Amino acid sequence: MMEFGGLRSSFDCLLIDLDDTLYSSSLGIAQACKRNIEEFLAAKCGVSAEKACSLRVELFRSYGSSLAGLIALGYDVHPDEYHSFVHGLLPYERISPDPQLRELLLSIPQAKIMFTNSDRKHVKRVLEGLGIEEECFDRIVCFETLNPHLFDTKEESSTLPRPPATPEVILKPSITAVETAVRLAGFDPRRALFLDDSERNIAAGKAVGLRTALVGKRVKTKAADYSLESIMNLSQAIPEIWGEKEKKKGTLDDGLAVRSELDSVRSTTPIEA
Ligand SMILES: [Mg+2]
């Protein structure tokens, strides 16, 4: 049990997604990303713009991402080529410095692990846009961390078995991706809180035993322990992060605890909390 100034917290670690979690989906970065993916698919697979849209949706559904789908289907695509096209041309200028978010992140007493499917360059550009130092995070788990096998440049030796022709791309929402992040974070998943805007990712987190918070949505999902409309509502939605007073029966503290619980029910929507 982690203690902060006499207050106990239910969590030892926070796993935090980047895109549409640390900044609002209303900036349209994800929309721009989808358009770039479709252009990439159209060029790479030689399909029309209309077909590229349905192909992107199908690859996302079946393989978790377009890149994973392209590689699984045998297309010769290097992740760096894909990311430089799909992320390199994003309208990063829409992301403005967010000193309140920076303050919020710095106030979180637990270890903070960024857990994103995006590549390292994208992480860097988004954090720069938000005015947040990478050091705000204890560790960054991103595409390259999850997929070191795709960047192995060692010369192939004829005496060693050849690697599989279609290496697997490890990304959320696969269980392997979540388990890898948990292992790298080095904390008991039951005492780790996972924040993400994707219902699929939250469900995968729950399956691995994490406590889960769906960010940016009002909808309730079965796999989410909490839901919050914005990361900026974190302290109202999940005050337990900063510790909670031990409840003492028969004292004034009881009434205070109940009142604070009622306040949190009113201001937020904890689900199965
Ligand atoms: Mg996201």
Give me a quick take on this structure.
The protein is of the alpha/beta class. The chain has helices spanning about 30-45, 50-65, 65-70, 80-85, 100-105, 120-130, 145, 175-185, 200-205, 235, 250-265, and strands spanning about 1-5, 5-10, 15, 110-115, 140, 190-195, 210-215, 225-230, 270. It has 11 helices and 9 strands.
Mean pLDDT: 87
Report the helical percentage. 40-55%
CATH architecture of the largest domain: 3-Layer(aba) Sandwich
Strand order of the largest sheet: 5-4-3-6-7-8-9
Distance separating the two termini: 18 Å
| CATH domain topology of the largest domain | Rossmann fold
Bound molecules: magnesium ion
Q: What would CATH call the homologous superfamily of the largest domain?
A: HAD superfamily/HAD-like
Shape verdict: globular
Q: How do the SSEs run, as a string of H and E? A: EEEHHHHHEHEHHEHEEHHE
Name the CATH class of the largest domain: Alpha Beta
Secondary structure category: alpha/beta
Q: In total, how many beta strands?
A: 9
Q: Please state the CA-atom Rg, rounded to the nearest Å.
A: 21 Å
Tally of alpha and pi helices: 11
Q: List unreliable stretches of 5+ residues.
A: 247-273
Tally the structural domains.
2
Q: Strand portion, in percent?
A: 5-15%
Largest sheet: 7 strands, mixed
